[in-house]
Amino acid sequence: MANHSINISCELSDGLRYHKAGDFKAAEKIYKRILMDYPFNSDCLHLLGVIANQTKNYAAAIDLIGRAVGINPGKPVYYNNLGNAYRDSGSFDNAVLCYKKALKIKPDFCEIHVNLGNTFIKKRQVDDAVCCYRKALEINPESADAYYNMGNACREIGKIKDAVFCYRKVLQINPGFADAYYNLGNTFRETGKIDDAISCYEKTLEKKPDFAEAYNNLGNLYQEQNKFEAAELSYQNALKIKPGYYQAWNNLGNTLRSRHLPDRSIFCYQKALELNGDYAEAFLNMGIAFYDMEKFQEAAACYDNVLKLDQTCPEAFNFKGIALKSLGRHDEAIPCFQKAIELRPGYAQACSYLVHQLQQTCDWKGFKFFSSMLDDFTNQAIMLGEKIHEPSFINITRNDNLQQNFVVAKKWCKNTAKHPESAGAFLFDDRKHFKKKIIIGYLSNDFRDHATSHLMLSMFGLHDRNRFKVYCYSFGTDDKSRFRERIKRESDRFVDIRSFSDIEAAQQIFKDGVDILIDLNGHTRGGRLGICSFRPAPIQASYLGFPGTTGADFIDYIITDRIVTPEEHAPFYSEKFLFLPHSYQVNDNTQLIAEESLTRKDFGLPEKGFIFSSFNQTYKIEPLIFNTWMNILAGVPGSVLWLFTGGKASEKNLREEAKVRRINPNRLIFAEKMPKDKHLERLGLADLALDTRIVNGHTTTSDALWAGVPVVALIGRHFASRVSASLLTAVGLPELIADNLNDYEALAVQLAENPERLEAIRDKLAKNRNIMPLFDTPRFVRNLEKGYAAMWDLFLSGKNPQHISDVGVQNLEPLQY
Q: Considering only the top CATH level, what class is 429-579?
C-alpha cells in the first residue's frame, strides 16, 4: 500500500535541489523513494533518467525517460531529454525524432531548437544546424547558447566573420561564458590573429581558471612565437589541472626540445606515451629529440613505431629518412623520402632531403626531376612570403646563384633563429670603456674529430694572450678525441653548453663578457644561430663552417677573402666583409702525416699508371664534373680515379655512370675512412687531385696540398665554388686554377702527360708549403687578430659595422720543420 504521508511536491523539490547541486546520489535516493510509493510518477522516472544520462548510463536513461514519456506523452521536456540521451549515446536519428516530437508540442521551445541543431552538427548537417539556431534566436534573441552553437557551426563551415560575430554576441549577453572566449580564441588562432587569440585565452582563464585546454592552446601560441619559457609555464599549468592530458605532455616536450633540452623533452614524450600508447605524434617528436642528440638508431626506431600505427604518415617516412641518412644508410633513406612525397605531394622538406640523398648516392636519374620540383617549392615560398623548407646548405650545394642563395639564407634564418621577445635585451655600454684584453668567443658544434677542428686546431693556442682571451662554447658531442682535448687545453675557458637553451647559452656568453662572438657553424647541421639571435656579444661574426651568407641581421661580419667573396658580391651578403689578406681558411701547421710506408697495393691501386684523386664527399660530385673526369681518364690511358667512398650505393651508381661514358668502371677505385694522419700519408700516393665544381674541396683541398699533391680546380660563381681558388692562390699555385671546364680538363691531361711539368709543380708546392701564407698558421692568426681589433675599434668609436680590409701583417719568420 502506498505511503500517502509522502509530500511528493516537497520531496521532488528536495531531490531537485540535490540534483542541481551535483549530488546525484542524494537526488537519486529521493526519486527512488517516491517511486516506491508512486511507481508511475513520470517526473521521478524522467529525473532518474536525466541522472543516468549525466552519469553516462545511456541505456538506463533511455529506458527511464521512455517510460516517463509513455506515462505522460504531452510533456516536451521529456522528449527533449530523451533526445539528449539518444544523442549522447550516438543514436542521432532517434534523437532528431524526439526533438521534433517535442517541437510539435511546443514549437517555441528555444532549448530544443538548440539541441536539435547540436545533433545535426553530430550528423555533419551543418546547414540544417544553423537553421535550428536561427529558429532559436527568433524565439529568444538573448539566447547565449544559440549564439554560441551557431558560432561553432559557422566556424566549422569557414564562415569566420559570422563565427566571430556570434561569439561576441554570446559575451555581450553573458560576459562570464568561458567557452565562448575559448572558441573565439581558437577562431583567432586559426586565422593568424595571434595576439587576439592570446587575449581570448587569458580571458577564458580569468573566467575559468581550471580550463586546462586553454592553458594548452595558450602554450601552443607562445611556442609559435618562440616564447619558450612562457609556453613551458602554460603547459605545466595545464598538467597541474589535468595530469593525464597527454597532448599537453607532448607539447611540453616540443617546447623543451626547442630550448635544446632533448633529455627533458624525451621524458615528456614518454609520459605522453604512458598515457596513450597509440599516440603516434609523441613517437614522432621523440624521434626528433633523439635525432637532436645524434642518437640516430633510437630515432629510427621511434619512426618505425609511428609507422606501425599509421602507414600513411608522411612525416614518419620523412624523419625516418633523415635518421637513416645520418646513419650513412643513404640508399635506405631515399625510398622513405619518396614515400613521404607520394603521400603528400607538396612535402617540400622531404623533397629537399630526397634531392640531397640523390646527391649523396650520385643517383642522377631522378635528380633533375626532383631538383626542379624543389626549385618550384622554394621559388613559390619566396614569392608568397612563406616558410622555406630547403635548408640553406642544400641550396648552395646545387645552386651557385648568389641571389637565390641569399634569399634562401635570409628566409631560413628568419624561420629558425628568431627570438623577438628577448632579442636585443643585452646592453654593452660598459664595454666601451678601456679594456686591456678583447674576449673572443668561438661557438661551435664541431669541437671534436671534425673537419672544422682539423683546420683550426693550432689557432686557439696561437692567439696573443697579451691582447686577447679565447673562450670556446661547445654544443656538440664530447667525443674525447685529441682534437677536443687540445682545444679545451689551449682555450682560456671552455664551456659545454649542449644542455643549455638558446637564451641560457646567450646569457652565459654575455655574463662571460665576450666581446666578439664567432659562429663556426652557420647553416650546417647542428648549427645554433638562435643563440646569436639574442645578440649576447656586441660584435658577432660568421666564419669557416658555412661557405656563404647566414642571411642574419644579427651577424655583423663574415670572415673572408677577396677571392671567395669579391667586393661585387657584397649585395648578396647580410654581413660586412672582413677581408683577410690571403686565404680566409685557417690551416693547422702541426698536422701529423703518418710514416707507415703505405703503398699503392695497400689500397688496390695499380702499380703503374697515373692516379687522379678526389677525396671530396660524394654529394659534391655532379654530372658536369663527372663528365669532365671521365674525359680526363679517356685522355690519359692507364689512369685511374681514386675517390672517397660514399657507400655501396654511390659506388654502384658512379661505376654505372662511368660505363655509360664508355669508361671501364674498374678505373674508379674507392677508399674508406682512415685516421687523419694515415689518410694524409695515403693521399701522397696520388699524382694529381681533381677538385669538384659547385662545392669545392675545403679541408679536402688543404689536405691534398699539405700531403704534397697538386690540385686542379675550377673557380665558380659563389663562395662554395671559389674556395680551392683561394687556397691555391695562398699556396702560390694560381696556375692550377681554371676558368672553365674545358681548360680544367686540358690542364689535368697536360699535367698527367708531362711528368717534368707536374714534378716542377710538386717541387714548388713542397717549397711553398713552408713559406707561403696558406700553412703559416701564426701569420694567419696575427692577420685575424688585426681584423678583430679593427672590428673592436669600430665598435668603440660608435660606428656601424663596415667592410674591413688591409689587415695583413708583415711576413713572420718562415716555419721550421
A: alpha beta
